[in-house]
């Protein structure tokens, strides 16, 4: 089974890298809006140096596939593809929302998590996740981008942890759910939490060659139209 996985994520204001070597995890993380392009590669070099490894010695490369900032997601996948191409590594995309669920578990043993990210434009990215006995997660509320007022999933389990920036940006979200919720304190995804998700994805055979790695924008049409010269 794959044991040496590098994960990188720049999909939100947070910039993070993590390396799993057997049971050891080496991680770097920094809130650095608009500095991802200058921060991420030195972080990669740092974790590899600490582990005494080169890219060619790794088994796979995981990346935050989104949702998140259009620019941030593009930066992350572009850098990840460049690294994977150079070392001929398979790639696996990891949901940033699911990564926050895993982080809530790491911090609080949370096994039911509603994750949201402030998507700007009066919308949120949102999804709901339940932890399985094998340590993987299943999606119980499909990831979507929508106005906060429309996020009201019907859930059988009445007790949930919340994670992400959407809850702070739209405080009324909590009251409209009619659920028992606990704030996990998680605001942003971290590459460290993508490692376990990537491990399970790789076990399911979901790795792809670098040229086939793709982001998940959820709002890709709108983001595309916002680019200069696009309609």
Automatic annotation (TrEMBL):
InterPro entries with a match to the protein in the record: ATPase_NBD, Gcp-like_dom, T6A_TsaB
Keyword Zinc-finger on entry: no
Pfam families referenced in this protein's UniProt entry, alphabetically: TsaD (PF00814)
Residue span(s) of domain Gcp-like: 30-225
Source superkingdom: Bacteria
Family according to the record: Belongs to the KAE1 / TsaD family. TsaB subfamily.
NCBIfam families: T6A_YeaZ
Protein name in the entry: tRNA threonylcarbamoyladenosine biosynthesis protein TsaB
Species annotation: Enterovibrio gelatinilyticus
């Amino acid at each position: 089974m794959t044991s040496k996985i590098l994960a990188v994520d720049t999909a939100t204001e947070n910039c993070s890298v993590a390396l799993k070597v057997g049971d050891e995890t080496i991680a770097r993380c920094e809130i650095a809006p608009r500095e991802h392009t200058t921060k991420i590669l030195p972080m990669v070099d740092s974790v590899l140096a600490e582990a005494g490894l080169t890219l060619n010695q790794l088994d796979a490369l995981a990346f935050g596939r989104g949702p998140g900032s259009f620019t941030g997601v593009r930066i992350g996948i572009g850098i990840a593809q460049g690294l994977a191409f150079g070392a001929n590594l398979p790639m696996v995309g990891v949901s940033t929302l699911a990564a926050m669920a895993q982080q809530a578990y790491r911090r609080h043993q949370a096994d039911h998590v509603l994750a949201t990210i402030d998507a700007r434009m009066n919308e949120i990215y949102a999804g709901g996740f339940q932890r399985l006995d094998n340590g993987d997660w299943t999606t119980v509320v499909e990831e979507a981008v929508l106005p906060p007022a429309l996020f009201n999933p019907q859930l059988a389990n009445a007790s949930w942890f919340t994670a992400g920036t959407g809850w702070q940006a739209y405080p009324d979200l909590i009251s409209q759910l009619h659920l028992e919720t606990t704030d996990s304190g998680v605001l942003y995804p971290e590459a460290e939490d993508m490692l376990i998700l990537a491990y399970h994805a790789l076990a399911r055979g979901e790795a792809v060659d670098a040229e086939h790695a793709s982001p998940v924008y959820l709002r890709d049409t709108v983001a595309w139209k916002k680019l200069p010269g696009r309609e």
